[in-house]
Write a structure and sequence with these properties.
alpha/beta, Rossmann fold, six-stranded parallel sheet, 11 helices, 6 strands, 40% helix, hydrolase activity, AB_hydrolase_fold, Alpha/beta hydrolase, hydrolase
Length: 231
């Protein structure tokens, strides 16, 4: 492996570490750590610096856990110099549902419906979500209804825009111009504080860009990491 900075990758709702396979294959020069659940557990036993990469809801999972790392203090020199070196959102957001002052999100009732259906038929809920994302309907790997329900609650109730804003590390948003889940205004409002150079938008990209546009995503990640090394 070349390059001291590893990639800590967190998939979105209902996906697991295999979601990153296509992009990982295109970036063999980097060490990858995939966190399906608890980030701290994955990072335990290693002190190498990381760039955290989240897809969709994975961004919110990262933002929930990043402040717990002892080396990262939001907005401080210690945070910028600690093991968290960068944060990348792919088809991501720091707030998902609409509310006062945030009309760009999705209606809360959509999450309520999914949460109501999930205990009785989790496979159908996951398949329907995958279909709306523009991917395969079937669920890959085992389904953990309790975990899925907890993450839907996070998506419905949490607002982590302050954590994104004060992350204390360089940030990048990789977006799809045809994303059926996170539209352009949603991505812009849900990831505040980014200039045009920190937003990479593929006009024909959908919501599953690491699966469907792996070359383009790998190129954006590689450029971001190179910029960190040069700074």
């Amino acid at each position: 492996m070349t390059g001291a900075i590893a990639i800590l990758a967190v998939p979105g709702w209902s996906f697991d570490g295999s979601f990153w396979g296509a992009v990982r294959q295109r970036m063999p020069e980097r060490r990858w750590m995939c966190a399906d659940a608890d980030v701290a557990t994955v990072l335990s036993g290693t002190g190498e610096p990381v760039v955290a990469v989240g897809h969709s809801a994975g961004v919110m999972r990262l933002l929930r856990q990043m402040p717990r790392e002892e080396a990262r203090v939001a907005g401080s020199a210690a945070g910028a110099a600690g093991r968290w070196r960068g944060l990348v959102a792919i088809n991501g957001f720091a707030r998902f549902t609409a509310g006062p002052g945030f009309p760009a999100g999705v209606p809360r009732r959509m999450l309520d419906r999914m949460m109501g259906r999930l205990p009785a038929d989790p496979e159908a809920v996951v398949a329907d979500f995958r279909r709306r994302c523009g991917g395969e309907e079937g669920a890959a790997g085992p389904i953990d209804p309790d975990r899925l329900l907890a993450e839907l609650t996070m998506l419905r109730d949490d607002d982590l825009r302050r954590e994104w804003w004060s992350a204390g590390v360089p940030r990048l948003s990789i977006e799809g111009g045809l994303d059926p889940i996170v539209g352009a205004s949603h991505a812009r409002e849900a990831l505040p504080g980014l200039g045009p150079d920190a937003r990479a938008i593929l006009p024909e990209g959908g919501h599953l860009m690491p699966l469907q546009h792996a070359d383009w995503v790998a190129d954006r990640l590689r450029a971001f990491l190179s910029g960190l090394a040069a700074s």
